[in-house]
Specification:
By secondary structure, the protein is α/β, with parallel strands linked by helices. Helices cover 46% and strands 8% of the residues. It contains 23 helices and eight strands. The strands form two sheets. Strands 1, 2, 3, 4, 5 and 6 form a six-stranded mixed sheet that branches. Helix 5 runs antiparallel to helix 7 and helix 9 crosses helix 13.
Length: 538
Amino acid sequence: MERRQNSRSRPGAVRIIVACRGFQGVRRCSDSHASGFPSAPHQSSRHTENRVQQICRPQSTLSLSQRSSTSRTTIVSTMEDYEQLATTLCQLFLLVILLLDDEEDDHCQQEEVPRRSLVQRSRPSNDAWLNEINTTLFKRLYRMDKESFLDLLKKISPLIQRKNVSSKRKRGGSAPNGMISNSQRLGMALRYFAGGDPHDIAESFNVGESEPTRSVWFITDAIHQCPDLSIKFPSTYSEQQAVAAGFKEISSIDIPTCVGAIDGILIWTHKANKNHIKNEEWGQEMTMFCDRKKKYGLNMQGTCDALGRFLDVEIKFPGSTSDYYAFQHTGLKKKVEQEGFLYPGLALFGDNAYKNSPYMVTPCQNAGEGFPCDDFNFFQSQVRISIESAFGMLVHRWGILRKPIPMNVSIPKTTSLVLALCKLHNHCINCNDIPIERPIQLDLRNIITSGGLFLPRMNRHSTTQEEQPSWSYDMSERSEDRLMALLDGGDHCDDHNPQMDSRAFGDHKHDLPYQVLYERVQDEGLCRPACSTYRPED
């Protein structure tokens, strides 16, 4: 007992010297005592002193200098390999650590480490966060006004309520910070659609980093299940005539025969996985690389009315596919070519990527200035440009389409995502939410740093307060709003025979809607207005 007290009273430095004296003993008893060393430095001091006494006991009666010399000689002379030396040094190192830590253990009793508590987030309850944002900032963040947001939330809330349950909640657990409300799910999804970064979105909503992405697919599924948001081409004569009346109002010569404007746009993606391509109908026969735009993507065929609402959207083929070939395999083409489906005299209006037919009107090719063909092309483009306006509003509103779709999103999910964006586009137009606010700088920076498109009029920094705060698509000639990087990617004939339709309808050219409209322009002497020489300043 006296020896133990004397050992406890020694300073830490002296105790280390005592341990070094027993270095030879550590070597000798390494095999028998290695398993007896404590695995952690926080052990009782009594246990440590007992181990020190056991290790230091096998000492000779030599003097201090003789013992030190003998220990060093023994270690060097009897060391057979580096493995035995490493074992000995490790045991000594652990012993030194234990002796140093016992200085504090003698004065305080070891306490149990408390369990780490969960992070508490100050998440607003229910829809209180909606009232904390002013009208202009809300529209810049979520790309629609509050009225459109609440109307959309009302439509899809019953469809996302059953999905907004975590697996832990299903097993009987509880959410420490409360359940994420449907309005927050919708808000996170819209921020993602606007081009926001998931980490920034998670921080602004005080949720986990995975919740924004999960919310995107909750909302996407709910949108597709909502019948009020579905996209349907008008099937009755009265609906088709109502669409034609809308185009007649925007035409300077009152063209009454347009039932829809059609065109294709490239949905920008990363290079797809080979396994994803194998699962598609087109397999590996076609590539997703669009040579005309030098981008990977998918060919989307869209048809809209005079206001830019989508009447039909189909995404079935890769970006290298021509618009003509993609349209030939759409469900809309099968409908309009059925006899009696379209009201007599009505047809779709497209560009030169398509071919004139009983259900399609396209411009004249190689039309020189001052000739009737040039005049016809101008009036035809007045109606057809509505689809370019629709694509422009779609991409300007949802910034995720201005950059490549993330690599972790498969082709089927990309198709589902884009179709949901088209439905949201229609919802905003139905709510008369047409002027689009400029995006916030945080989302814009994320789009540009991800290699996305810079839209001049939308992203140009405002220098004066008099500059208009909202954006609307400019349908004039040489407009900066035209999506040159995404449009016209399918204007080629690499995958089809351009003479196919010419032979098919060669005997009925005089009955085609194209010929009827062309003869009207020629007979009435209708001329296009003079081109303006005005150019906007940079």
